[in-house]
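STRUCTURE REQUEST FORM
Protein name: Flavin-containing monooxygenase
Source organism: Oryza punctata
Requested output: structure tokens
Priority: standard
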Amino acid sequence: MDAVDNMAVLIVGAGPAGIATAACLAQRHAPYIIVEPYNRLKLHLAKEFCELPYMFLVVITGENSAASIPPVPSLTRFEGEAIHSSAYKSGRAYTGKRVLVVGAGNSGMEIAYDLATHGAHTSIVVRSPVHIMTKELIRYGMIMVQNLGLTVTTVDSLLVMAANFYFRDLSKHGIMKPKMGPLLLKSQTGRSAVIDVGTARLIKGGVIKINTNSVEFHGGRQNSFDGIVFATGYKSTVNTTVKACLKRMVSLKCYPNNWRGENVLYCAGFARRGLAGIAMDAKNIADDIVATMDKVSC
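Status: completed
Returned output:
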């Protein structure tokens, strides 16, 4: 029996990064099994009796997967509905109501737009500077970096100028720009530019109100809202041991080489570079695994 016949790849995590890695392996005709982890996942036989053929382990359990709501002491006294953006369905239920969206990332801006277009009196808390871009601008920016070889700094300057021309000055409406350009900010901090779906127009028209300060609830008399949507992101639920291992692995190797660890251990989706980073990790992992299999079969 060929040695490769006893090899397979175990992918732990069936999210976007796991599916992308599986797809890349399938394209290269490499055998794999993909599983979704849970707290009590374990083998019930001693390891010497578990004849699983896995030679490669790809951990893709998700860097951020649990809804995160910041501590708000007075929130317990709030009489309206307070939910995380992951539980938000549609603005239809909020027609005519006063709703506060906390967080001005992509989720927050899209939810604010949906609420406003369904007739809700919408306010949004902008907690930090943010780039507002169109999908086309980001697409052209990535093309200029990847295909034309322009530097990220140069492309960022062009993107900011184009956004200024398209959206005009949003600072007078309470939206400030970060000091870093959108692509550099994404690569260094993981923070994405907001892809506008029409929210900017409603903000400039006064339909959506901006609140750049923290909101305090005083018995419903000030800043009175019927509902709050926390678009405040997610936190990691990765098992502590796995998380420590991955952190050590990632810290030793900077992007774009952070996907490969020691002893055929890989991880994808932890570079904080969104779907583009996931795609690159998946391709690199699949290529490396297939190359290793080819060496063993020789």
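Reviewer notes: The chain is about 35% helix and 15% strand. Residues 274-297 form the longest helix (24 residues).
Form closed.
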